[in-house]
Amino acid sequence: xxxxxxxxxxxxxxxxxxxxxxxxxxxxxGAMRITGEGVWGPPKNHAGALAVLRRxxxxxxxxxxxxxxxGPGVSEELIAEALFPYPKDLVIATxxxxxxxxxxxxxxxxxxxxxxxxxxxxxxxxxLERIDLYQLHHPDPITxxxxxxxxxxxxxxxxxxxxxxxxxxxxxxxxRAQKIVPIVSVQNRYSFADREWDSxxxxxxxxxxxxxxxxxxxxGKAPDKALNQIAEVHHTHPFQVALSxxxxxxxVMLPIPGTSSVxxxxxxxxxxxxxxxxxxxxxxxxxxx
Length: 289
Hints:
It is a single chain. By secondary structure, this protein is α/β, with parallel strands linked by helices. The protein has a single domain, classed as NADP-dependent oxidoreductase domain (TIM Barrel, Alpha-Beta Barrel). Helices cover 37% and strands 15% of the residues. It has ten helices and eleven strands. Strands 3-4-5-8-9-10-11 form a seven-stranded parallel beta sheet, covered by helices on one side. Strands 1-2 form a two-stranded antiparallel ribbon. Helix 3 (112-126) packs across helix 4 (145-157). The radius of gyration is 18 Å and the shape is globular.
């Protein structure tokens, strides 16, 4: 293990506030990949999945992101099995708004009835009385967006969820939702290699909303030449450079790299100790993909 991990690694990237109520370290853990192949069913290595979750917390991760559709239900159950009773500072964020009728199939359902049922299911699997952060996984093309968000606001008033976030949304979605309930986080696909949602990152920074990039490493795509060059200078891995770039891209950035390997987990979290120079950051910032 890298010597720098003697310090809680996830804390080295700084922290970010969720709605002024909760503060978490800016390197979290995405728990999608601890399920079976294709995000379906149990993992091939059950003990290994539990070990990854426990090691993440040992290394200072206090923000774990999951969803009821991961498995489905499997990711949430593994989190509870590995970590319950939870450390006091651990924030578990989950999401709802998809159905998983079969492997490889994802169907929209952000209807009020489905979201209420989904929240109750997540509470049971996670062994919680209240979910710290609940996110609408995706706007539903059939259910009116305001109805979906309004349901989360209702469940918040009932004490089932503490904070509300959105995923896979535009700036317009965020602004509409804010009129219904405070939005503390936005989770969109974003990485060094994929900057489609740059404008949403900037909007979130301007309004103090945490931005949670999913696929923060571009789903393992081959690193860019510039990443390789800077990695050589720092004697590190290009993916660590990519995570460091994310952390320096915005103070509200909350990357959640996921893995089913303890070794890769430690490599990812080591990125919090990496500091790019102003010239290196500028070089990467100006790189067009």
